[in-house]
Write a structure and sequence with these properties.
This protein has one helix at residues 12-20; strands spanning 57-62, 71-76, 82-87, 95-100, 106-108, 117-122, 128-133, 140-145, 154-155, 163-168, 174-181, 186-193, 199-204, 206-210, 216-222, 230-236, 241-246, 252-258, 264-270, 284-291, 298-299, 307-312, 318-322, 329-335, 351-354. By secondary structure, it is mainly beta. It is globular, with a radius of gyration of 18 Å.
């Protein structure tokens, strides 16, 4: 898998690696993960703004301010005061930076010449940062101190495969990630015990994220029959069963994450909002939320520009990537109480299966 740029197919398989990074405009490619093509940034959208379905948020605020390159993969600290993200602001190769949410000053965490670093995750104790880097020629998962600059980076996963999209369990004892299975030609979800280094493979899927109680993983997966849009699934780690939470034959659901209380799932849609349907670009459009049982689907953002990679911070704010100012930056909003709002069209299946159905 290449650096910070990607191409995607028109349907779900497009959306997957699309959301791996910046996910803007996709075209089909049949190359290996390390050889995929280039991302094409869409021109600014000058159409009139849609009328919001509901007044679902307030305090729309820019968080990053790069006017060159692109920002992506946001992660917010437990207190909601610090944001980490990857950026190509300083060089064509992506680096990990952090900043106070309320400040414009960024602090560079990683910089490896001729390498891309992305997908940062702060450990639950705030002492370490987990991320993906291709500094050894293929993407793998590394860990570095969050407080000591210049500290030695440690390779975390040693399975001789391409590994990306790491995340800590809430207690820090495990990490989840995706690993490329060459013989299967697909990305699989893996969980590794930090104390034993034992890896367990669960099946196809991308963008795994632990639930706040550490008992489940939410992820996205494409169907194996047409139309191959991505849908959102939840893996119960104790029972080893999977449930499809939200799906559609007309649009894709990508880059899922949890609400701080674990009662809702937040994600980006592709080709769902009225401003994007029929445009033929298959870009991420708006951020949506759904209850963890697959009901009460609500559109959270309503801009014409693509919004994706949402992160619901513990202070209630939702951070996400958007091109709404003509640049690809981190933004945030404060959701209102969404329970009284009229739900959007229900298209969830909430079906359950075992791991062999993944």
């Amino acid at each position: 898998m290449e650096s910070h740029v990607r191409t995607y197919s028109l349907f779900a398989c497009a959306a997957v690696v699309a959301s791996f990074l910046m996910g803007c405009q996709w075209q089909e490619t049949k190359d290996t993960p390390s050889e995929k093509g280039t991302m094409v940034m869409p021109p600014p959208d000058n159409r009139a703004r849609m009328t919001p379905m509901n007044d679902t948020y307030s305090e729309l605020t820019p968080v990053s301010f790069s006017d060159a390159g692109m920002d992506f993969d946001p992660f917010v600290s437990g207190d909601g005061k610090t944001v980490l993200f990857a950026t190509t602001k300083m060089s064509p190769k992506s680096d990990i930076v952090l900043k106070a949410v309320s400040s414009r000053v960024i602090e560079q965490v990683t910089h490896t010449p001729n390498a891309n670093e992305k997908q940062p995750q702060l450990s639950p104790d705030g002492k370490s940062i987990l991320y993906a880097s291709d500094k050894e020629g293929r993407f793998n998962i590394y860990e570095v101190s969050s407080t000591v600059r210049g500290a030695r980076e440690m390779e975390v996963v040693r399975n001789e495969r391409v590994n990306e999209q790491p995340c800590y369990s809430p207690d820090g004892s495990r990490i989840a990630y995706v690993t490329w299975m060459p013989r299967k030609g697909d990305w699989w979800i893996a969980v590794m015990d930090r104390s034993t280094q034992q890896e367990k493979l669960y099946g196809p899927g991308v963008f795994p994220r632990f639930s706040p109680d550490g008992k489940k993983l939410v992820f996205q997966k494409a169907r194996v029959r047409m139309p191959q849009w991505f849908s959102i699934w939840v893996l119960d780690l104790d029972r080893e069963t999977v449930s499809e939470i939200i799906s559609s034959d007309k649009w894709a659901a990508i880059t899922p994450n949890w609400s701080p209380d674990g009662k809702r799932i937040i994600f980006a849609a592709v080709n769902k909002s009225l401003s994007m349907k029929g445009m033929g670009t298959y870009m991420a459009d708006d951020i949506y939320t759904v209850w963890a049982d697959g009901s009460h689907l609500i559109r959270l953002t309503d801009g014409d520009a693509p919004d994706w990679s949402p992160f619901w911070a513990s202070n209630g704010r939702v951070f996400f990537i958007s091109t709404r100012n003509g640049h690809q930056n981190v933004w945030s909003i404060m959701p209102r109480d969404m329970d009284p709002f009229h739900p959007d069209t229900m298209e969830s299946s909430a079906s359950m299966g075992h791991l062999d159905t993944l």
